[in-house]
Design goal:
It contains eleven helices and ten strands. The chain is of the alpha/beta class. Helix 6 links the parallel strand 8 and strand 9.
């Protein structure tokens, strides 16, 4: 099978903090190096699993520069730019582009439960970002509370040249991916799933070429995608069945705290601090996660030893 440009494993980098809540620059660099050592095809920064909603604007600018400079084109970097204000989303896209990002990712405009862009407003915001001239990944995420029907997504792909990738995380991912690919054809250059890859096999069957997971076990999930893209569904199924208990535990028990717990265990980061009001993982939950991971010996658990 021909490997597409936008394919493979493109996980989200967690943001590393000191125990006092300050950004830990060296640990952040370690996170990026650890992810590259896991064989990722790309890295996403400042996403929801990076705690972007707990990061100040000045920290965002600093982290964008720090991450892009440190990765230094070793792998493509996606910078998340979501914001309710179109002008701010556009400026974030320009900054990311100027600093060397390969792609930007954005959700539909929303603020809280009630302020949501309608279909036309969402299209117009994405079009404004597209004018910056950097490829765009549309994140179809339940967090926004905004419905992005297939007709709207395919319209974006056809009418906005820079809209090339789609991260589908809404209910019934495989079904929506299948409809999106059927309707959009070659304009859907990078159909991805998310949600830690919990429905990965079904999504690959539906036509997904890649997955944006957390940074927990990309070295174990990447080979599943590679096997599938090489036409070996049986090997992909076997690999998926091996990692699914870990993914399920992460998805249902830990969320973005899982990658930090593993990286702390592996001495990638000095602290797994999450900013308030996020609660720390319960010790028994952390123990359960590490116990599930250890038999498969992922890089995150041993990188810094």
């Amino acid at each position: 099978m021909t490997k597409k440009l936008y394919s493979g494993i493109w996980p989200v980098a967690p943001t590393a903090f000191e125990d006092n809540g300050e950004v830990d620059e060296q640990s952040m660099r370690n996170v990026l190096d650890c992810m590259i050592d896991q064989g990722v095809n790309g890295i996403c920064i400042l996403a929801n699993f990076s705690e972007q909603f707990l990061i100040s604007d000045s920290e965002r600018d600093h982290l964008t520069k720090l991450c892009l400079e440190h990765v230094n084109q070793r792998v493509p970097v996606i910078v998340t730019i979501s914001h309710f204000a179109t002008s701010i989303a556009v400026q974030r896209a320009k900054t990311a582009c100027d600093l060397g990002a390969s792609i930007v990712m954005m959700m539909a405009p929303y603020h809280g439960a009630l302020l949501k862009g309608n279909a036309e407003q969402t299209f117009e915001q994405v079009k404004a970002v597209g004018d910056v001239g950097i490829p765009i990944m549309i994140q179809d995420a339940p967090l926004s509370g905004v419905d992005l029907p297939v007709a709207l997504l395919t319209r974006m792909a056809r009418e906005i040249d820079m809209v090339k990738l789609f991260k589908i995380e809404s209910t019934g991912v495989a079904g929506k991916l299948r409809q999106l690919i059927a309707a959009g054809g070659d304009t859907i250059e990078g159909p991805f799933d998310g949600e830690e890859g919990i429905t990965l096999l079904a999504d690959l069957d539906a036509g997904a070429t890649g997955s944006m997971t957390s940074a927990l076990i990309p070295d174990l999930i990447g080979p599943v995608i590679d096997a599938y893209s090489n036409g070996d569904r049986e090997a992909a199924k076997e690999g998926y069945n091996q990692v699914l208990p870990i993914i399920n535990y992460e998805n249902r028990q830990c969320g973005f705290r899982a990658a930090k717990a593993a990286m702390l265990n592996g001495k990638v980061i000095k602290s797994d601090f999450c900013r308030h009001p996020i609660e720390a993982l319960h010790p028994k939950t952390r123990k359960g996660l590490i116990e599930l991971m250890q038999p498969l010996d992922p890089i995150a658990l041993k990188w810094g030893h």
